[in-house]
């Protein structure tokens, strides 16, 4: 079975073709213009999606050596995300479905990240814990099967990527600051400054990063009122990164033990962080937890994870009438009910 996936929930325009769980193509066009504004500008994002979506889909089909006539279904992200961006992808997919008479499978973006550990033919044993950690999300899930997952904790304020980006702004770094902080940290001492680890010892699986941001702000004002000396910048970055990574790993560990689920998937843009990747592999390998952190192109927003889920859903239900309904609505926000701990 071949599935075309389309993902436009934020500022990446992506299309992919998946065949029997394997990626034939995964084209991702990132909108770097937002770097200039220090954050994603929704109006600009949707306009760029409109301009390039047709080309991105064509490229994905070409790279997969496939024609629309050979595609068995179209999977598209319909929630959550920026409303204007979601509308572009889902309307484009609806148009293709109508024109070529193909089933259309609406996919939840976060669900895509949750199961992204299965990309590239990898197998993750159920039950497992997934940490979705990006600029917009920081949540932990207990995943029992393909249809059974529940959120067990999420951030009460800023997402981890948002914390990297906002603290980067305080430090005078560019946007997105996560990769810059990651790079500068390599020359810094992570123990030089002891920044707060929000909710590290709380009884639940929630996160909080706004206290860290405020603490860094006051720290800079008090310690370096005349500007941060260059040699201290790497130390501050390394110390901030350590505070974020330590909390992320500690909450994963806690969830693994609590749910007796010795398999872990970490996905989302922040999973590109080298300290998070290294420390997670080191800590979890030592205690026999199987850990999957997909390659960067499957961690960031991508259509391959959307197509993968589309294929699973289509295989499960067959060409059900539900998959020919074109009246599904895009949904920018989604409140998931949290599992009782
Ligand atoms: O998943 P993503 O591409 O987009 C969404 O937020 O949906 O994630 C982008 C976020 C940004 O906040 C960026 O600063 C962060 O991921 N990020 C990183 C690294 N690479 C990207 N954060 C820390 N270290 C990195 N290497
Ligand atoms: Zn995402």
Give an account of the 3D structure.
The chain is of the alpha/beta class. 42% of the residues lie in helices and 18% in strands. It is built from eleven helices and ten strands. A five-stranded mixed sheet has the order 3-2-1-4-5, with helices on both faces. A five-stranded mixed sheet has the order 8-7-6-9-10. Helix 3 links the parallel strand 4 and strand 5. Helix 5 runs antiparallel to helix 8, helix 6 crosses helix 8 and helix 8 runs parallel beside helix 9. It is globular and about 65 Å long. The protein starts with a strand and ends in a 24-residue tail after the last helix. The model has no long low-confidence stretch (mean pLDDT 94). It binds 5'-O-[(R)-(carboxyoxy)(hydroxy)phosphoryl]adenosine and zinc ion. 5'-O-[(R)-(carboxyoxy)(hydroxy)phosphoryl]adenosine (KG4) binds next to helix 5 and helix 6.
How far the N terminus sits from the C terminus, by CA atoms, comes to 39 Å
What is the β-strand count?
A: 10
Associated small molecules = 5'-O-[(R)-(carboxyoxy)(hydroxy)phosphoryl]adenosine, zinc ion
Q: Note poorly predicted spans.
A: none
| Strand line-up in the sheet with most strands | 3-2-1-4-5
Over all CA atoms, what is the radius of gyration?
A: 20 Å
What structural class do the secondary elements suggest?
Answer: alpha/beta
Average residue pLDDT: 94
N to C succession of SSEs: EEEHHEHEHEEEHHHHEHEHH
What is the percentage of strand-forming residues?
A: 15-25%
Count of runs of 4 or more consecutive helical residues: 11
Helix content: 40-55%
> Major sheet: size, sense and barrel closure?
5 strands, mixed
Shape designation = globular
